Amino acid sequence: MMRIWALPVLLVLCGSAVATRLVRGERPGEAAALLVVFLVLAATYSPLIFPKSIGALEAQRRSADDGRPIVFWRPGCVYCLRLRIRLGRSARRMYWVNIWRDSAGAAAVRAANDGNETVPTVLVAGRPHVNPDPAWVREQLRRPA
Hints:
With 145 residues, the protein is α+β, with helices and mostly antiparallel strands. It contains 6 helices and 4 strands, in the order H-H-H-E-H-E-H-E-E-H. The chain crosses the membrane at residues 29-50. This is Glutaredoxin domain-containing protein.
């Protein structure tokens, strides 16, 4: 769990330190702007902007019932972030599995990617797709199960 929050916490701490130094140098406007940038980066790399993750086994069970895709992801992955942002609200209609929190999810990704934990890996109808185009993923959500 600590690994998930390490980068966001580091960004907040660094931003706070730099902002404090700027405030002491009587540049509060620059300090505030820089702190906002660091806070936005920390939020971007935190797991907060992703839908709630579930376990891989539960996601596979649910996907088998309703046909929704499964997204295997990890915090700090820019490609996962790109997919999440470009999917918008439709991201909530998918099952998200954080491979740093779920060993079965990490194993499923390694099995699909020749031993590598390459994310995002999207499982559609039991077939893995590595770093798919977000438009293609949206199209898969429109198809009937």
